[in-house]
Amino acid sequence: NQEMNENITKEKVHQVKSQRKGLKEKQERIEALERKLAEVLDTSEQDRERIIRQCDAELYNSQQDVSTLQKALHMKEQELKHIKRLGKRVLDQRTETEQFFL
Questions:
Q1: pTM to 2 decimal places
Q2: Which pLDDT score, from 0 to 100, does residue 101 have?
Q3: What is the mean pLDDT of residues 29-51?
Q4: Could you tell me which residue, 96 or 47, shows the higher pLDDT?
Q5: Alpha-carbon dihedral of residues 61, 64, 66, 71, nearest 10 degrees?
């Protein structure tokens, strides 16, 4: 009877040790996965910030390009108005000259 109790006790002790070992392995696996997750999240955040900086730079450059093109367009519009005025003046002078000779 006592031998049976000792065997049961040994078996239970072995089960507890085995469970503790399994729990420890699982805890280590969880910690490793948590470290990997933290690493992935950190990398993801760094990538996100880098992409935001790139987009901001591209947006700024695009805005500068738009501003430059708007200024160039305005200058071309002014130049076209001036050419139209000159053309009208030449046409008016031609008409006056034609009428003078008629």
A1: 0.58
A2: 85
A3: 98
A4: 47
A5: -160
* Strands (DSSP E) found in the chain: none
Angle at 37 between CA 43 and CA 30, to 5 degrees: 160
Average pLDDT, the chain: 96
DSSP string, 25-94: HHHHHHHHHHHHHHHHHHHHHHHHHHHHHHHHHHHHHHHHHHHHHHHHHHHHHHHHHHHHHHHHHHHHHH
Q: Is the dihedral of CA 31, 35, 38, 40 positive or negative?
A: negative
Q: What are phi and psi of 83, to 5 degrees?
A: -65, -40
How close are the terminal C-alpha atoms of the chain, in Å? 146
Give the Cα separation of 68 and 60 in Å (integer). Answer: 12
R_g over Cα of the chain: 43
Burial of residue 68 (CB within 10 Å: 0-12, 13-18, 19+) is: exposed
